[in-house]
Each structure stands twice: as structure tokens, then as C-alpha cells.
Amino acid sequence: MQRTDISFKRIQQLAIPAIISGIAEPVLSATDAAVVGNLNEFSIESLAAVGIVGSFLSALIWILGQTRSAISAIVSQNLGAGKLKDLQNFPAQAIYFNIALSIIVLFSTYFFVEEIFKLLNAEGLILSFSIDYYNIRVWGFPLTLFTFAVFGLFRGLQNTFWPMVIATIGAALNIGLDFALVYGIEGYINPMGIKGAAWASLISQAIMATMAFIFLLKKTEVSLKLTFPLHPEITRLVSMSFNLFLRSVALNTALILATREAADLGKEYIAAHTIAFNIWIFTAFFIDGYGAAGNILGGRLLGERNYKSLWQLTKKVNLYNIGVASVLVFIGFLLYEPLGLLFNKDLKVITVFYGMFFMVLLCLPFNALAFTLDSIFKGLGEMGYLRNVLLGATIFGFIPVLYFSKYMDWGLIGIWAALIVWVAYRAVALMIKFKRKYIPLIEN
């Protein structure tokens, strides 16, 4: 059997398209935030609403979108073991599993949206805008999870090119629609404000899902015909997905608590936090590109039982991502002022943002290590350990620091200090696990 290529060239072939496709979802939210944050009227309230809804929707997408990693891991491991033909009806069953989950969650939240956003400290005009924005954007949720499932299949097949094409077109379309629908086009489209931003995202998600459907049929031999009995790997998919579900609940508990505490500080603070969070998410997905390469190749190497190459791959992608994070930090300091003004020009909001943005930049090197190892461990199928790490990081790292900083009245700096501790905890725990479990296998 031919050994898996982990050369610099091969890693770039996987990572660069993965970076481009990975930033599509944060681009949707960041574009919405930037466009509504520059409305002539109610810009602060609109920006705050996008931040609150974006945080909640990201939580839902991350919780259920983790099936993408499980699908990718199963396909890549079977590919490495030379058993790809044995998967048969697994892809179709996995995709329908994803769609069913998304529909259940959609209807379990849709009728309680006001209560949910009140728990996140939204009130008055911000609450009204949040409900308007969510009630449109939420219908894109099943479309996004379908697209994610297809991306997982492509990743497992060692292909990140077609996901990149889909994501790039979706992001570009969203940017154009945002300007057209939010601000309007004189004589053609009336300005729709924050609702226009929601419609722009929904239309873009529909186009991406359609393209994913077409490419899956045209570029692979995968059939979407649902047949029974259930494939044996479905049991492992459900187990992996359940562990990733619990993990993502812990992950999003931290992010939602951060948003809630920022909203409690006042509308200028939640607006500034929204700007910081959108930039952080954008860089996180940028960093995740090399993590995706580690995920894809790592699963295949595990299938081959090629532990020496797995260790070499892990060192390479972590080193590359440290370099990427360093460049992003440099760019962040270089564009410190313009980045804030891109989203909002209110003096109070910008002042708060400038006073805490350095914390976002300090977090990036920790992101590089944590997110890269996180992706590699997903490819290795270590979902149970990833679950435990996130639970530990949230319960013993993030929450104590968050509420200590609240007691000390550190404001947004305290919230982001808690996030840095949370990410660093994960990086250290994953490094220890890899050293203890996989390094010894090299010598066996």
C-alpha cells in the first residue's frame, strides 16, 4: 500500500483550500456585523443584536456541525486502511443523520427565541432586532449542517478543493447581498436594515447547500439514496458525535457566558465584544486550515498505523500554525485602529474596543496550538478525550477566571483573560495526551 504523503507541498494543497473554505461561516457573520454596524440609525443596537444572535447560532452550528469531523475521521481512517469500498451506504446515512438533528434543534429553539435572548441579557430594541434577525437566519441552519456533512465527506476523501470553491462563492455572494439588502439599491431594492443582513446570509447558505449537493453527485461516487440496514460505522458516528456534542456544549457554554457578561456591561460593551469576537473567530478558522490538513492526513496515517509519520505531521502543522498566528498578531497590531472602524464608528464603542483588543491578539498563539491539536485528535477519533478536555477547561479554567474577573471589575479584559486561560488549558492537555499515548507507539 502506498504511504501517505506528508510533504510540505501536500500539506499546503490541503491546508490552503481548507483555510479559504473554513473562513466562510465567520465571513457571513463578520460581514453582517460590519454592514449593520455602519447603519445611519440604530447602528449600536443592530451590531449588538448581530453579536448576540451570532454567538447563539455559532453555538448551535458548532454543537451539531461536529459531525463533520466524525464523518471525516471515519472516511479517512477507512481510506488509510484500504477499506473505503466497505463504507457503501454510510455517506448517505451520515448526511440524513445530520439533517434530522438540525431540524429537531431548529424547532426546539424557534418558539422560545425571545426567552433565549433575554437570558443573554438582550432587552429593548436590541432584543427586538435580535428576534427579527434570528427568525430569518435560523432557516439556514439545516442548510449549513448539510453543507458541513458534505465537506466532511470531501475531507475524508483527502479533498479540500471543492469545499473551498463552494465556500468562496458563498462568502462573496453574502458580501454583495449584504450591501444590496441592508442599504438598498435606489430604484430597485428598499433598505431592509438588519433583516436584509439575515436574508443575505440565508440566500448564501441556500446557494452553498445547492452547490454542495451538485458537487457531491458530480465529483464523487457517493450516492444520496438512503438504504438499510444501518452501516456498522453509523454506531461509531453516533458515539463520536455524542462525545463531540457534549464537548461543544461545554465550548459554547463558555462563549455564551462571555457574550452574556459582555451584554451585562452595557450596549457599547457588547458591541465592542461583538467586533472582537468576529475578528477572533475569523482568525480561529484561518488557523484551523492547517489543523484540517492534520485532521485529514492524521486519520489516514492512523489507518495505516504509521505512527512515525503521524508524529512528524503533528510537529509540522503545529509549527506552520505558530507561524500563521504570528503573522496574524503582527497584522492585528498594524491595523489596530482600522479594524475597529471597519465595524463601527461610535466613539464609545471604539474606545472600549481599543482598550481590550490586545487581549484577542495575545490569544492567537494559544489558539494555534489548541486548535491544531484539536483537529488532529478529531482525525484520530479521540472524541472522548476531547470531550473531557473541554469540560475541564470550561469548569476549572474559564468559569473561575470569568467570575473572579467580574468580582474584580475587570470588564471585557477580564472576559478575554478567561478565554485565554480556557484555550491554553486545552493546548497543554492535548500536548500531554499526545506525548503519553502516541510517541511510545513509534518505537513499537
UniProtKB/TrEMBL annotation:
Superkingdom = Bacteria
Keywords for the protein's UniProt record, in alphabetical order: Antiport, Cell membrane, Ion transport, Membrane, Transmembrane, Transmembrane helix, Transport
Q: Which residue spans traverse the membrane?
A: 46-64, 94-113, 133-154, 161-185, 197-217, 237-258, 270-297, 318-336, 351-373, 385-404, 410-432
GO process terms (BP): monoatomic ion transport
Q: Name one GO molecular function term.
A: xenobiotic transmembrane transporter activity
**Which CDD domains would you find in this protein's record?**
MATE_DinF_like
Q: How does it sit in the membrane?
A: Multi-pass membrane protein
Q: Which GO terms describe its cellular component?
A: plasma membrane
State its location(s). Answer: Cell membrane
Q: Which PANTHER family has this protein been placed in?
A: FMN_FAD EXPORTER YEEO-RELATED, MULTIDRUG RESISTANCE PROTEIN NORM-RELATED
Which protein family is it in?
A: Belongs to the multi antimicrobial extrusion (MATE) (TC 2.A.66.1) family.
Q: Could you identify this protein by its name?
A: Multidrug-efflux transporter
